[in-house]
Amino acid sequence: MRPFTCTFTVLLLSSLVVACGGESPPPGDGAEASDVTTTGDVSQEDQGTIVAEVSGVKISAQEFEAAAAREAPRTGEPMTEEQKREVLDKLVRERMLYLEAKKAGIDRDPKVQKVMVNTLLRQDVYAGVRNSDFTPDDLRAYYEEHKEEFVVPEKVQVRRLYVKAGASRSAEEAKALIEELHAQVTANPTRFAEVASESSEDPYRRRGGDLGYLATEGKPGIDQAVVDQAFELEVGEISEPFEAGGGWHVVTVTGKRERVERTFEQMKGSVLRKVKNERYKDLYREYVEKISGSYEVIVHDDILAELEVQPARRLTLGPGAPGIRPEMREEGEVAHESPE
Fold it and tell me: 76 and 172: one domain?
């Protein structure tokens, strides 16, 4: 196994010092640490000549030379003893920080374990996959077989008024209120966003009821009946009040995007990313199957059966929110840069 980079150690520390009640290291420390490499306490066999040790954690001459090469004078002159000592001191500090982090149990944090798993997969499982492994014929065959995945679906931009019904308000009261709001927006459609901001009872209220652009399959947190109703409307048309998902709704469509079919030439980069992720998933399964015999797994079925699981709260993401987090990806799927 190749040595972990210092980026892993810094991420390990910065991710979990906060979790342990401390503060993240300042950017300067992280920038300095990122210039060196560290093996941590991973397997240290076949490291060759050892230049230093920190409580049994070794720093090899090969590792030192790689770190020193990045600090060597651009003039081509050899490094002085003082300069070499500075490089080694950085490596030593990284070893000490790593050992302190492990002593504090930081390596048991699920986030750090996820980083470790992803680092292992990138180094030992996915590293051999190259863009050149996939011929143009392979990519075109995948595109033809999965053409629908590369279509931009028809979408409508939807605004909604929503009134809750429940313990604090009967269905009849909710219906009366939504009908009053419906009368206001039909009398003056330009006030739809204003009325939604004042009276709608969902997280989209602060956006004037704007649910964004929705495809026919909808999106999490939006009742499918709302989406279905929106697709029956023309741009600018306002629906009649309707009941769904524990409340009453009025929707309007403010924009529409037509379905777009994209050619193989347009989507070649996306096809390559998808094909590579398929390969990654296969390699992931093969790797897990290979190592599974080396570990004893004990499941306490009685305890498992007694655990009650509640659905996780969904976060409502506003405009410009980041995409899917790495830890939310499907097992075996990784993010990688677009090919040149």
Answer: no
